[in-house]
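Reopening this one. Same input as before:
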Amino acid sequence: MTDFTVNRATVRRRVIAIFVITLLAVLLLITRLAWIQIVHADELYEQAWEQWNHNVLVQTARGSIYDSSGTMLAGSVSADTIAAIPQQVENPEAAAEALSAVLDKEKEEIEELLNMERSAIYIQRKVDHKASEAVREMDIPGIIFFSEEERDYPSQTLASQLLGFVGTDRGLAGLESYYDQYLSGHEERLYYPADGRGRQMPHNFERFTEPRDNYNIHLGIDETIQHILEKELAVIMDEAAPRQAMAVMVDPHTGSILGAASKPDFDPAAFDNYDPQLWTLAPFTSSFEPGSTFKMVTLAAALEEGLFDAEERINCPGYTTVSGQRIDCWTSDRGGHGDISFYEAVGGSCNPAFIELGQKLGKEKLIEYSTGFGFGKTTGIDYPGESSGLVFDEEQMGPLELATTAFGQGISVTPLQQAMAVSAMVNGGYLYRPYLVEEIRGQNGDQVFNREPEMLRQVISRETSDQLIDMMESVILEGTGGNAESELYRLAGKTGTAEKITPEGTYGSDDFVYSLVGFAPVEDPRVVLYVAVDGVTKGPRYGSQTSAPLFKNIMEDTLQYMQVAPTKKADFTEEEGND
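Same output, byte for byte:
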């Protein structure tokens, strides 16, 4: 009886102990489940998602580039990217051989990719439609396709050097490079479900992460004006076969670039088929001796300082001597200009007369006005690789350098610098910073940047500006720019012929840059235009036959496009009606 009672008590204790242990175990399991499903639910879900789904990085579309009227100059179109899931490729060698016959890759390179220990890997990104279709027809297991955005230039070569071009994912030249932080797309992930061995599962689904915003940029460039510039440059390239021709047009009252181009150029969709020297925009990145176009700086300084007397006379025998060095006038082969007034010397672009003006100014004043008009340093335009040119400082400028600078020899400047300097000469004396981009907008249209014209300084007075306007018109009507005279509009400007230096460092190579910088219409300057023709090899080798008609044709077409009333035609009609 006693043993039985003892045994029952023992069993009861054991049952209670087992129950307590079991209860504790259940409580621990419940606590662990709660910890996993509540506290760490999000973290574990993400880990599970990564195990179930593999991904491939893709790039979203770049922002677009528009002209001032909203015409797209650079945008994006869909293109197929070919990738592979290596674990699903049954025969990497055979697959690589088939793919290499269609894609721009060697068999060995593709086979190496297919044998990598990766969940997914690019074979070739952004292929053309024909190649993509050919690969699809092969139906190779493990080869997958998805859509990305490829850069598109609807107008092909138009403004190519201005716009630049794009590599696989980023801008490499021009505005595409300079504004890449705004234009560039963003990396996103394309997901696909896979089993434990990384093989894509049937009934797959794809999901992109939420896109982030990129931006569109809007230029001051007008597509029609740009077309006018490039059309006329193409004509002169055909007629005169120069090494290069270039043009830049600017609004003198704001600094906005309305058009800029140089020929030959390139197709940005196939940029690697062209010489890299054609990728940059010469009016911004090239500097060279300006020649007589720089005489306007000397004239402006002399007028502002009260040192120019239009009636004062000078005798030009075709040369002058400075520090024992003979300096020829361009009329030296015919005995010079002879006895002329300084007003006539401006129209006739007389070197000795401008040397005398430079000597009256002195080196300090000539340097002051040269730098005041922006020469010797970059303008700060929003374009990569701008050249600063080169002008003498006071320590470098002796009597000979003073003389040559006064008529535009021995220094180097850019076409853009000259266009901006003349803009200041005709807008009342104000130097503006040039610019290309007027505003930047998000994909939703919200404005994130709006350009305000930036006036840097006043270089000359309005009175001097008015005098320069009259004198530059006389160059077209009575002087060296006669072939730039228009029957429709009052044009004004200054011609230049810059003799290029030989490899030995001397002049006399018979290799010239013919240029003309000016504005129109005279009564209300709307545009300033610089044109240059470098290294003519066919036909007449004179600026009067190359840069002058180029200037006139661009100006007439542009002003008509801008609906500026033909001044001369209007005057003639009015006079005829009074008879």
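So the earlier flakiness isn't reproducible anymore. For the record, Confidence is low (pLDDT under 50) at residues 197-201, 570-579.
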